[in-house]
Amino acid sequence: MGGRMEEGEDPGSLIKVIHLLVLSGAWGMQVWVTFASGFLLFRRLPRHTFGLVQSKLFPIYFHVSLGCAFTNLCILAPQRAWIHLTLWEVSQLILLLLNLILATINARWLEARTKSIMWALQSIEKERGLGTEVPGSFQGPDPYRQLREKDPKYSALRQKFFHYHGLSSLCNLGCLLSNGICLAGLALGLRSL
Q1: Domain boundaries in the chain?
Q2: Are 183 and 24 in contact (CB under 8 A)?
Q3: Backbone angles phi, psi at 18, to 5 degrees
Q4: 141-152: buried (b, 16+ CB within 10 Å) or exposed (e) per residue?
Q5: CB atoms inside a 10 Å sphere around CB 121
Q6: Rounded Cα–Cα distance for residues 53 and 17 (Å)
Q7: 47-76 and 111-127 are packed helices; what angle lies between their axes, rounded to 10 degrees?
Q8: What pLDDT, in 10s, does the model give residues 144-159?
Q9: Does residue 99 contact residue 82 with C-beta atoms inside 8 Å?
Q10: Cα 191 to Cα 193: distance, rounded to the nearest angstrom
Q11: How far is CA 94 from the centre of its chain?
């Protein structure tokens, strides 16, 4: 498998299987983390325990996503001479490159910043006796809202946290969508089931 393949050459069954397994595995993991595990854990765990769990899972999740994106791009990029690529093949490479960039931003930049701000927020919350409750368990006024209103440092940190968390979520959704579109393209190219 040295060099580029000539037009019409088949990349080989093993390469196809690896590409499909890595792409579908990454997409399945992204769907689970994005739409299932986070919501389930958030509803069931005390607030600071949820933050601790996420701080352990997200670095691994983001780096696995990064590894899958890199692997898929490395599998597809050398398959054919660039001049002979179809529109779909160029689109798929662009989507996989986008996936790699977004996964890298999450793994190498946003995750560490979000986590450090979360620890600072939790430190302030612990000083006020907060963080051991399950979300939605308060009767009466929300103590977190009261803390935001009384403590400008806490309020500013919280805004910064949601800024980074929002950017990270957008990167994650971009990865999820790009992998999903690539999978849909592969599925539409199947000759039979």
Answers
A1: 13-133+141-188
A2: yes
A3: -60, -45
A4: eeebeebbeeee
A5: 21
A6: 33
A7: 180
A8: 999 999 999 999 999 9
A9: no
A10: 7
A11: 18
Residue with tokens 């931003």: 105
In the block, which residue shows the tokens 């940190």? 157
Q: Which residues contact 151 (CB under 8 A, 6 or more apart)?
A: 124
pTM: 0.86
Q: Cα dist. 66→16, 106, 172 in Å?
A: 20, 9, 11
Supply the pLDDT for residue 78: 81
49-92 pLDDT, tens digit per residue, is 999 999 999 999 999 999 999 999 999 888 766 677 888 888 99
For every residue of 30-88, which 3-state class applies, written as one string? HHHHHHHHHHHHHHHCCHHHHHHHHHHHHHHHHHHHHHHHHHHHHHHCCCCCHHHCCHH
> How many CB atoms sit inside 10 A of residue 110's CB?
23
Q: Rounded CA gap, 98 and 77, in Å?
A: 14
- At CB < 8 A and 24+ separation, what contacts does 120-126 make? 120/157, 121/154, 121/157, 121/158, 121/161, 122/48, 122/51, 124/151, 124/153, 124/154, 124/157, 125/47, 125/48, 126/48
Query: What is the C-alpha separation between 15 and 132, in angstroms, rounded?
Result: 49
